[in-house]
Structures are given as C-alpha cells and as structure tokens.
Amino acid sequence: MEKSRKKAALWLLVIPYIGLLWPPLYNMREPALFGFPFFYWYQLLWVPITATLTFIAYRSTRHDD
Amino acid sequence: MTTDIDGTALAVFLFFFALVTVLGFVASRWRKPETLAHIDEWGLGGRSFGTWITWFLVGGDFYTAYTVIAVPALVYTVGAYGFFALPYTIVVYPFVFMVMPILWKRARDFGYVTAGDVVHGQYGSRGLELAVAATGVIATMPYIALQLVGMTAVLKALGLHGELPLAIAFIVLALYTYSAGLRAPALIAFVKDIMIYIVVIAAVALIPSKLGGYANVFASADAAFQAKGKGDLLLAGNQYVAYATLAFGSALAAFMYPHTLTGIFASNSGKTIRKNAVLLPAYTLLLGLLALLGYMGHAAGLKLESANDVVPALFKTLFSGWFSGFAFAAIAIGALVPAAVMSIGAANLFTRNFWKAYVDPNVSDAGEAKVAKLTSLVVKVGALLVIIFLPTQFALDLQLLGGIWILQTLPALVFGLYTNWFRAPSLLAGWFVGFIGGTFLVWDAGWKPLHLISLGGEPFTIYTGLLALAANIAVAVAVNAIVPARTPARA
Predict the structure, then answer these.
(1) How many helical (H) and strand (E) elements, i.e. helices and strands, does chain A have?
(2) Contact B94 A36 (CB under 8 A)
(3) Helix, strand, coil proportions of chain A in percent (round to 5)?
(4) Predicted confidence band at A3 (pLDDT cuts at 50, 70, 90)?
(5) Which keywords are on file for this protein (chain A) (predicted)?
(6) Is residue A32 in a domain?
(7) pTM for the model
(8) For position B1, what pLDDT does the model report?
C-alpha cells in the first residue's frame, strides 16, 4: 500500500512532458496576464509546477544512496 | 551601437574579472584534499560536492554565457520558436531526477570518472567505450568555442576589440583550471551565478518600466515581426513538432555531455542530485525571463549589426556605466565556468578512455592527473584557435551537430542502468547509424538540425537528433534480437 503510493508519486513526473510537449495546447495570445500573452506565462508557470511535482517525488523517494 | 570605451564600465568589469581570477587560484586550497595529483580530486573535486556547491556548479555550467547571449538573440530574430529553450530546460529535470542518481551510484561504486568508463564497465567493449568517449570530446570542443563567442559579444560592447583581450582571459582561465581542477569553476560559479541572478532580476524588473510595460514590449516585438515579415509571437502550425521535439531531444541530450556529467559525478550522493532536480529549475525561470530580453530589444528600437548583440546593446543603452560593466562581467565570467568544466570533462575522457586504454594502461593515479591537466590546456588553446582562425559559423554548425552526436550516446550510457539485455555490438551499430545518419540529414538540410517530413498532409519539420536517436535505438534492438550472443552476457 505504502509502496504503491510511492510509486504513484513518480508518475507525477510524466505530467510536465504532457503539459509542455503538446504546443497546440498553449499556442495562443489570450488570456494575457500582466501583459504576457498566454503562450509565455503558461510555460513560465510550468517551472514552479514542475519543481513542486519533483519535490513531491523527492519526498516519497528513499534516499539510501 | 557605440563601442567607445566607457571608463566606469571597464573598471567594474576588470574588478570582477580580477576577483574571480584570484578565486580561481585560491581554489586549489579550497576543501583541500590530501593530494590533487589524482583524477578523482582534480577532475571531480573529490566527489564531495553537496547540495549548494552542486547547485551553483551545475547551474553555472548548464546555463552558459552562450545561452545568455544566444537565446535572447534567437527570440529577437524568430520570436516564439526561440522560446523552446524554456520547455527544454523544464522537462530535463524529471529525467535528471529519475536517471542521474542511478548513473552517479554506478560511477561512485566502481570509481568511474567518465561516460566512457561507465560503458566500458558495463559492456567490456573498448570499441563502444571509444565511440562514447570520442563523441563526448568532439561534441564538447565546439561548445567551448561558443563560450568564447559569448565572451566576444560583451568584450565588444565594452569597446575591447580584437583577439588579445579574449586570449588573455582564456589563458588566465587555462592556468587556474590547470592548477585547481574542478574546484576552480565550482568556486567561481558562486560569484558568477549570484551576479547573473542580480543582472537578470534587475533587467526584467527595470527595463520594461523604461519601455512602457510588458504589454508594450510584446506589442513592439509583434509590430517589428509584422514589418519584417519574419518571426511571430506565436508558433506557426507547422512549427509545433519542431518546437516539441527540439525541447524533448535537447533535454535528453543535455546530461549526456561531459561537462554536465562531470557536475553529476562530482556530487556526494544520489540525494544531492535529486534535491538539485527540485532546485535547479530556479535557473530555468531566469532563462525564460532572459529570453524576453529579445523582445525588449525591439521595444527599445535597437539597431543591431548582429542579433548576438541584443543583450549587451540593451544593457548599454538602458543602464548606467557601472551596472552595464557589472552585467558584462557577469556574462564574461559566465563563459569561464562552463569553459573550465567542459575542458575538464573532455580531458577526463581523453585520459581515461584513450590514454589509459591505449597508450599507458599502467598509468599511476598521479600520472592520470598529469595527463588530464595537460589535456585541459590543449583543449582550451584549441578552442581559442578555432574562434580566432575559423569563421564563427563553423563553431555554430559544429555545436549544432554536437547536440545530435551526443544524443546518440544515450542508449549505450543509460540503457545498461536498467537492463542487461543489450550487447556492445548492437549498441555500437545503433550509435553508428544514429551518428552518421544524423550528420547526413543535417548536412542534407543545409546545416539545419530540422528534417522536413510530409506524411500526405501539410509538411512539417522534426528535430533531426530525435530522429537519429529513434533510428539508433531501432538498429540496436534489431541487431541485438537477430545476432546471437557469442558469449554469455556479463552480469
């Protein structure tokens, strides 16, 4: 049970690939934010999202090395 | 842009340059080991770097001076398409998190220093080891040369023309790398990265207010692209595949390079590497904001001879003398860290996988360190000569090919961490097809890393490196499945 949850956390790391490697998903101007077209702030937003997902994976990894 | 010498800017620049030079030489006494006459100490800093040192070192080494100059330049010229560097440097970290701790452990347990060592240890094949090591060296050489291109751009903006200032900077770098090894760039990286953070944060906070806000920055860039008829704030439909495959392929290639691997092998634990996969994206945020300087160049109405001048020209136009001197110093020092680590990585490869393998198998630890130190000098002088005597375009084309070449070492280096199924001849065949095929496709496209594909519908382009990698893997799998093993696979 515990182990499968930890394995599941690693699957979180697939999410950034889906969010970023399919450009039609975000190739648009609107909605703009602080003057940034969507294309730009969407991709910039993935930096903290990916760091957070990686942190969750980090928390659920056993560091025996 | 004017290129008269600004006294204040030059003084600030020289101050910081002198500071890191002193640090570079002091580094040989920093975290002093019993002896530096061992390749583990000279070439990997004793495999002792913790979270912070690794963060500064890998950050300073992966986000190079060339990046600081070239990414905004590309965005300035083509718009949205140049932004692929952002998804690239995001999706690289989940990969680092999953793969690099395993690779690090393999290297630490068996005392491997290079990718070539890992491959030789896994497959016992000198041929595959040589292929991986040689690919690493030739992919890195033009990369070092490009750091000099980044440096030239800021020296030019400071009014320092000609090759002499560049040569002096590089020779100083070569000398302290020779004496302190990886400790020199690791120590300098602290100064360099903090300076770059200050510069970029100041730039993205202050410049837009001088140019009427971000909305106006984007609008001016849009207008400039419309007027020019080239470039766009968004991707065109036929650029989707190129954008995504460039990002993905570059991310897979990034940590196959000797300089990034050196940073990984030099860290003290798998945990340090995982923690860095969480923390290193801070640099990516910086890179994304930096890329926008390309658009600010349009908003500021800069008239440029070369797109590579956009960042220096922007600082020079909008900032006071002392701060532009500070910014230029940050970029120039930013060239020194990766150039040092790259030359160390290439030197380690030459020493371990060529000198030790073919010339002197019984070389002592001290002898190994000696060979690596001398090689690092030769590599840097070579890069300097390339930049001085050959057209810059030559280094650019080679670096582009370098990315495709280094990606072809991924199956040999990474697959063995997970499975013992593959054998050396199949991986070597795959590498050969990927390397030669990729090179041919790039040449065929007029030295462009994109390959045109039309599957009935509208034609689109795809990153050649990824295409070559697919062929590489397909050949490796096919050969491995068809050709029977002569000897039982090594456990």
Answers:
(1) 3, 0
(2) no
(3) 70, 5, 30
(4) low
(5) Membrane, Transmembrane, Transmembrane helix
(6) yes
(7) 0.90
(8) 45
Closest by Cβ to B93, choosing from A28, A35, A54: A54
B204 and A CB contact within 8 Å? no
* Exposure b/e, B447-463, CB count within 10 A at least 16 = b: eebbbeeeeeeeebbbb
Q: Do A20 and B91 touch (CB under 8 A)?
A: yes
Which structural domain, as residue segments, surrounds residue A45? 2-59
CA distance between the termini of chain A = 23
- Beta-bridge partners for B232: B79
CB-CB under 8 Å, A46 with B87: yes
CA-based nearest residue in chain B for residue A41: B288
Any B CB within 8 A of A18 CB? no
Is residue A34 domain-resident?
yes
DSSP annotation of B488 reads P
Q: Cβ contact (<8 Å) for A27 and B80? A: yes
Position with higher pLDDT, A52 vs B334: A52
Count up the domains in chain A and report the number.
1
A65 belongs to a structural domain = no
Min Cα separation A53/chain B (Å): 9
Residue A64 forms part of a structural domain: no
Q: What's the CA gap between B379 and B307, in Å, rounded?
A: 28
- How many other CB atoms are found less than 10 A from the CB of residue B3? 12
3-state helix, strand, coil in chain B (%, to 5): 80, 0, 20
What CATH number labels B7-389? 1.20.1730.10
Contact (CB<8Å) A39/B80: yes
Distance set, CA B436 to CA B343, B401, B414 (Å) = 25, 11, 20
- Least confident piece of the model among B30-44, B275-289, B346-360: B30-44
